[in-house]
Design brief:
It contains seven helices and six strands. Strands 1, 2, 3, 4, 5 and 6 form a six-stranded mixed sheet that branches. A hairpin with a 6-residue loop joins strand 4 and strand 5. The two termini are 24 Å apart.
């Protein structure tokens, strides 16, 4: 059921069987691509009251244990808001990323363990890790549900949509995560 909904969302925002790499002109001129860019542009402005409210609730939830960072990059054509919760543990950095799609009412949460590279807040990604903060994650999910967001099921995050692509991701490699959020690959 969810996958059927997601495929319709995908086809509404990405042209089918038009390769963004080999047929860039046709891709750029497609109505789906224009619709997607328009959505990204509309969100690349001061945040709406709903988003500001979501940010404040998330910050409050993590205030005791985590630093909060807005890592949203609409200038990079991300299709989501990205909020990071960062916790230093010795020489390692634990990062929880909360993605909220601008295309559809979906969210995803990813956890990473990183090694700090320097003092300018740049990190070298080491690995995805198990996150032992179940209460915190459940709190994030409750806030997301309050904002009428649905969690992208884990079994669909890496599932490929064979006949669409975007940016420099090749046809057949584009996932539902990419459809809703950004061009990150796992």
């Amino acid at each position: 059921m969810i996958e059927k909904e997601l495929i319709l969302i995908a086809y509404d925002h990405y042209p089918r069987n038009v390769d963004s790499i080999s047929d860039k002109d046709s891709y750029i001129l497609s109505k789906q691509h224009r619709k997607l860019l328009d959505k990204i542009e509309r969100h690349n402005k001061p945040y709406s009251k709903n988003i500001v409210g979501l940010i404040e609730e998330l910050k409050l939830l993590g205030a005791k244990e985590f630093d909060f960072n807005d890592a949203t990059y609409f200038d990079w054509q991300d299709r989501c808001f990205t909020f990071e919760f960062i916790k230093n543990i010795g020489d390692k950095v634990l990062i929880l990323k909360f993605y909220k799609s601008i295309i559809a009412p979906y969210f995803s949460i990813q956890y990473f363990q990183s090694k700090e590279v320097d003092n300018s807040n740049r990190y070298l990604m080491i690995s995805k890790v198990e996150f032992d903060q179940a209460d915190f994650v459940n709190g994030i999910c409750k806030i997301a549900n309050k904002h009428e967001l649905k969690k992208l099921p884990l079994d669909l995050i890496r599932k490929k949509v064979p006949d669409i692509n975007f940016d420099d991701i090749r046809m057949g490699k584009f996932t539902y995560f990419n459809v809703l959020f950004n061009s990150q690959t796992f």
